[in-house]
Every structure is written in structure tokens, then in C-alpha cells.
Amino acid sequence: MGKYIIEGGYSLSGEIKVQGSKNAVLPLLAATVLNEGKTYFHNCPKILDVYNMLNILTAIGCVIKWESDVLIIDSSVIKTHVIPEKYVQMMRSSIILLGSVLGRLKNVKISFPGGCSIGTRPIDLHLKALKQMNVDIKDRHGFIECSTNEIIGNKVSLDYPSVGATENIMLTAVLSEGITTINNAAKEPEIVELQDFLCKMGAKIEGAGTDTIVIKGVNKLNSVEYRIMPDRIVAGTYMCAVAAAGGEVLFKDVCKDHLNATITKINEMGCSVKEYEDSILIKAPIRLKSIDLIRTQPYPGFPTDMQAQLMSCLVSADGTSIIAETIFESRYKHVTELVKMGADIIIDGRIAVLKGVPRLNGAEVFAEDLRGGAALVLAGLGAEGKTIVNNASHILRGYENLDKDLSLLGAKIKYSSD
């Protein structure tokens, strides 16, 4: 499972380039199934979730290769509509292959997905939408089987602006007959990225970034070359690292518009933030300020994927902060580990009350999910003494070079596979 070993108390300085986006690239990888040609990706992060998705694509017939840092996917031949269960259980995002394989083959069989245990995250919204598009769905022995003689566009209204459901509907509708309209669609930047990618392949989609997306079905898509956008959650994580450890860092190759909610909270903690065209400079104060209330919300609100990292900063802030986790009911698994390090946190349902302590103490802790694991690394950077973060494989799912990046900025951190 691996571990990170951190010697706390070293401030960060310098500049760093942010990797390509995990949450953007996974639906794009699924979408390559639709074009029956070749796709050339630039800035694709080399992380476990990407490798798992590539394993699935290889298993169903795609040919994958890396040429230097360019990822090439040839989806000319798809041999099967059955998605291998062992990979699906490793990664929840594999569910987006439901839409792309169904769109290509009009038939798909996939198990219910695994991944981080941060909440129930049911896929009923996905299936309800597909039923409205002339898709027959059977749930048998833990597998979902979808089939149709023709995907027919329809008006779909989501009960909740689910990112995964929005992506699956888009992927299913691209090669459909007629027009599909998604009402109450998710507005995340990753949805816009999926629209841009599909349109570059020849799809006809508009409205991503608003609550209404319209997809006009086309008969065929073409090969494409595409650069993945920067990862807004990795950028936010590293900004919180500066806040937790202290120092001053310039973040390059970022989209500041995607980071507004996170930057607002970084600023409220007392950090100095200077924004440039495609870079952001963060300077930490001597001690962070508390924040009265942080409430996680769908985009453009404060992202649930940044809640744990912000908590690792606020546990050492001056005063009391309150966090309300409204998205996932089991996203406080890192709290027990932070308490081991001396944090003063009280959990009441989905509310966390943080009473700032002067400094955390290093300890041996265990990551139980991706973002919670990253938060424990940040806590270790600001703690006194040595921190060991076990179960690092969770973190490797989304961060390409966490230890190397932080080391370049002056942190004392190393990864061990033992």
C-alpha cells in the first residue's frame, strides 16, 4: 500500500506546474470508445486511476501506448461490451464507461462500481435517465445490463446535478437519434471539458457550464488530438500545503476561474493571494485565521474534494471553524487521524467543529480515501516531528508526483513502497 514519511516544520517556497486533471481525463478516456479511431492526449496525469481506466480500455479491445508524454488510444476495434469487474471495483469513475460503451455498441454489462468509500453515491440517476432514452436495463446479481436497438434523444431532468449522471447521459446521447436535453445538469469545469473534447471529435453539444445541456445526435465521430486541462483539486491541495506549512509559492499552468471558491477560503484564512493570467501566488501568514462556516456545495460552490485539505489547515488556525459536508455522508474519515496528531475536532452528523491548536504533532496515521489521505500529508507538513501516512495507494489514485512536487518546494517528504 506504500507510505509517505514527512518531517514537519519546513516552509515551502518556489514555483510549481500543476498536473493534468484526474476528474476531467477519466470521462475523456471513456469517450475515446466512441470515435472508432485514434486519440492523442497531452498533459495526461500518470496516476493510478488513469492506469486503471487504461486497463479497462485494453481489456475491451483498445490499443494503448505512450510516446514520450503523449498518450495514444486506438479504439478502432472494441471486442466486447462486458466491462471487467476487477477494474470496476477499483474505481468508481469506471461507471462512465456505461454511457460510452452503450453509445458505441448499444449494449453494455458492468458491475456496480467500487472506489473510495466516502458515501453511498447511488447511480439511480444514471439509470433513470437512460431508461428515458429507449434503453432497457436489467439488474442481475450485482451487474447492470443495458441494451437498446436505438438510442433515442429525450428531455431528461435530473433530481440532483450529479456530475457522473450528466457525463453518462452526454456520452450515451452523442451517437443517438434526435436531441437530448439535460435539465439541472452539473456545471463543473470537467463537464465543459467533456463537451469541448466531444465537440472536437465532431459531436454537437452546447450548454455545458449551465444547468441545461443540449446534445444533437450525430452518426460518426473522428480522431482527435487534445490537451487535458490543469487539475483544480491538485492546485487547491498544493495551495493548502502552503497554508499549512507556511511559505510562498507560485502555481503555474492553472485556470484561476476554476479555483474561485477555494481561493476565497485560502484568502479568508489570512493568506495573501495574487492572481495572474495563468498563475497564482500564495503567501501564508505567521498563523492562519479560523473561518466561521465552510459549506461544501456543487460547483461553483466550495468543492467537497477540498474539504479535507482545508480542514488540515484550519485545525491549527487561530479560533474555531465550522465545516458542513453536504455532499457525501462519510467524508470525515480523516478526522480520527487528525485527532491522533493533536487536532481538536468534534463531529455532529455532517458538521465538524474545529478548535484551532497552536500546532499538530507528528504521528503514524492511515489514509482511507484519496482526498483524506492528501489532507493527512498536509497536516504532516505543518506538524512538529515525523508523520507517517500509510495506505498511500489511495493518494496515488489522484496525485502524480506529490512527494517530488512538495520536495521541490522545500518539504522533507519521501515515498516508500514498503
UniProtKB/TrEMBL annotation:
Identify the residues that bind UDP-N-acetyl-alpha-D-glucosamine.
Answer: R92, R121, P122, I123, D124, L125, D305, I327
Name the enzyme's class.
Answer: transferase
Any one annotated GO CC term = cytoplasm
Highest taxon of the source? Bacteria
* Keyword annotations: Cell cycle, Cell division, Cell shape, Cell wall biogenesis/degradation, Cytoplasm, Peptidoglycan synthesis, Pyruvate, Transferase
Q: In which pathway does it act?
A: Cell wall biogenesis; peptidoglycan biosynthesis
Major localization listed first in the record, in broad terms: cytoplasm
In its UniProt record, a GO molecular function of this protein is: UDP-N-acetylglucosamine 1-carboxyvinyltransferase activity
Sites where the protein binds phosphoenolpyruvate: K22, N23
Active-site residues (renumbered): C116 (proton donor)
For this protein, the Enzyme Commission number is 2.5.1.7
Q: Which residues carry this modification: 2-(S-cysteinyl)pyruvic acid O-phosphothioketal?
A: C116
Residues covered by the Enolpyruvate transferase domain = 7-404
UniProt-annotated location(s): Cytoplasm
Question: What's any GO biological process attached to this entry?
Answer: cell division
Q: Which InterPro entries match?
A: Enolpyruvate_Tfrase_dom, Enolpyruvate_Tfrase_sf, MurA_subfamily, RNA3'P_cycl/enolpyr_Trfase_a/b, UDP_GlcNAc_COvinyl_MurA
Q: Which family does it belong to?
A: Belongs to the EPSP synthase family. MurA subfamily.
Protein role: Cell wall formation. Adds enolpyruvyl to UDP-N-acetylglucosamine.
Q: What is this protein called?
A: UDP-N-acetylglucosamine 1-carboxyvinyltransferase
